[in-house]
Amino acid sequence: MTLFGYPIETVYFTVMLVVGIIILIDVLTALIFSVGIISFVLDLLPIPGSVLLYFLGFASVTGYLGERYTSFSSVTILIAAIIIGIIFSSILYFGIFLPLSRTSDSIAYATKDLEGKTATVITSIPKDGFGEVIIEMNAGNISKAAKSDENVPIAQNETVLVLDATDSFVTVVPYEPFLKL
């Protein structure tokens, strides 16, 4: 079978080579500039550009290997290449790209995430002053300056509840669990 006057095997190989070079350029520019130039341009398409590149890559590799090493007809190999390209690019998109796009870029926390958490006083909080508390989060322990909401002194090692959180300090009250075990 020929396509554009060239044997289909040559077309598959050329597409595979061009897509491989584009992916390599994209990865290298992403390492240098923190954004892949090719991905940036391809992301203007209605589908993610990287998924399109990987579809073309998987389909062309499948087509090339099918033409080279099997005796199936070119139409059968083309259909199989398209199906395999769709399957692998879907796995890549739904299994890796989409879940990664929904994750946080860092283990940092938002200040408002501290509200409602319990903390342990590590430096006692005086009546009209500041002390320090440590709050256990998924990202690790966070130490923050703290003041008492009710202007009562709070001793070291006491458990407190964070009522309000700002960038510089948290406002706390002594914590009394609802159920005492």
UniProtKB/TrEMBL annotation:
Pfam families per the UniProt record, alphabetical: NfeD_TM
Record has Transmembrane helix as a keyword: yes
Keyword terms of this UniProt record: Membrane, Transmembrane, Transmembrane helix
InterPro entries recorded: NA-bd_OB-fold (IPR012340), NfeD2_TM (IPR058653)
Transmembrane residue ranges: 12-41, 47-65, 77-98
Boundaries of every Membrane protein NfeD2 N-terminal transmembrane domain copy: 1-103
Name listed for the protein in its UniProt record: Membrane protein NfeD2 N-terminal transmembrane domain-containing protein
Protein's organism: Listeria booriae
